[in-house]
Amino acid sequence: MAITRIGNIASTIPDDSIQNAKFSNIVQSKNIIINGDMSIAQRGTSVTGNTAGGYTTVDRWNTILTTAGTYTISQSTDVPSGSGFANSMKFDCTTADASLAAGDNMRLQSKFEGQNLQYLKKGTSNAESLTASFWVKSVKTGTYILELEDKDNTRKISKSYTISSANTWEKKTVTFPGDTTGAFNNDNARSLDVMFWLAAGSTFSGGTTLNTSWGAPSTADRAVGQVNLSDSTSNDFYITGVQLEAGTTASEFEFLPVDVNSQRCHRYYYTLLPLGSLNKYFLTGYYYSTGYIYCNTLFPTIMRASPSLEQVGGTNYYQFYSAASGDTFDDFTNTQTLNPNSAFFGNNSDVSGTAGNAGAVYCGNNAAYVAFTAEL
Question: Do both 323 and 253 map to the same domain?
């Protein structure tokens, strides 16, 4: 998504024409990372007892956790002082795994569409280098691995960085050379993964040399030297200010207005009814027939693809209020139409009303939840 900021525009306008227009502070969105400041968390701010990873709290950040301990994953307000950040993403180990099996691993991952990466000129002689910059903090000092993976051409590259001082925010910069082999596909599918390794069994770290050049490496060379964040319940890991940009130097973090940041996240995930929304109306609809209600919602931005419905339901979690009476139902049983712009869905199992009557859907339980996902 391209974002342009234009400021400090000066011009001289003689003879009814604009001449010598001067433009400064014109910035094209440079950060490939979406929600790098960890400020958007549609799914919630904390999840406990996590053993399987997934998208849990902070938008656009997926955790891969394969039998490598148990974690509380949260959006934190612990941030580097004077940096301008309000949030970080935190991993707190609550059940340790001090002896990783070969395939055990833990990674923090963000995924990107190929059509947004064409300007990197990957696969050509003019391929751009990429520089990552970010703030990290952990009790666990030592070597960590940052990896880029080209999903279209099965090519990877890894670089290491070091957390030197325990419980201290440190800014890191890692530069990757441009890859002259294999272009990214120009579509809305997954082309690039950015992965912060946090733990790696011997399957991923048992090699002798870290894979620091683009290619199709041995799996064992992907995370050579990676510390095991899961080896103690005293361990934690914080990260914020993640930026990935073209070039060989890191610039200052590109802060976006919250509405722009939210819109970028909504392309992949949109929460229609957040948890804790008891007594709130959130949809309108009508009785298509006596036992069938249809509802419609427009998404705040065009989603990456036709999404899937995510929901939490239960006995009388929802109510369709029409003609001065309420008709309770448990969940949405029918997704008639889901497209990148809107959703047309309803219930055809629990309701009973008068065909043609309009109404509104009401949340009857704090545990109710409705969202749409088009994650890569």
Answer: no
Asked whether residue 201 falls in the same domain as residue 290, the answer is no
Domain count, the chain: 2
Last residue of a domain, one of 237, 265, 293: 265
Going residue by residue through the chain (376 aa), what tens digit of pLDDT does each one get?
444 443 443 344 344 443 433 333 334 589 999 999 999 999 999 999 999 999 999 999 999 999 999 999 999 999 999 999 999 999 999 999 999 999 999 999 999 999 999 999 999 999 999 999 999 999 999 999 999 999 999 999 999 999 999 999 999 999 999 999 999 999 999 999 999 999 999 999 999 999 999 999 999 999 999 999 999 999 999 999 999 999 999 999 999 999 999 999 999 999 999 999 999 999 999 999 999 999 999 999 999 999 999 999 999 999 999 998 999 999 999 999 999 999 999 999 999 999 999 999 999 999 999 999 999 9
HEC per residue, 259-281 = HHHHHHHHCCEEEEECCCCCCCE
pTM above 0.85, yes or no: yes
Q: Does residue 64 contact residue 230 with C-beta atoms inside 8 Å?
A: no
Contact 106, 234 (CB under 8 A): no
Domain encompassing residue 151: 46-265
Pair 157, 196 in one domain: yes
Name the domain boundary from 265, 293, 324. 265
Please indicate, yes or no, whether residues 247 and 273 belong to a single structural domain of this protein.
Answer: no
9 contacts 21 by C-beta, under 8 angstroms: yes
Q: Which two tokens stand for residue 23?
A: 């433009």
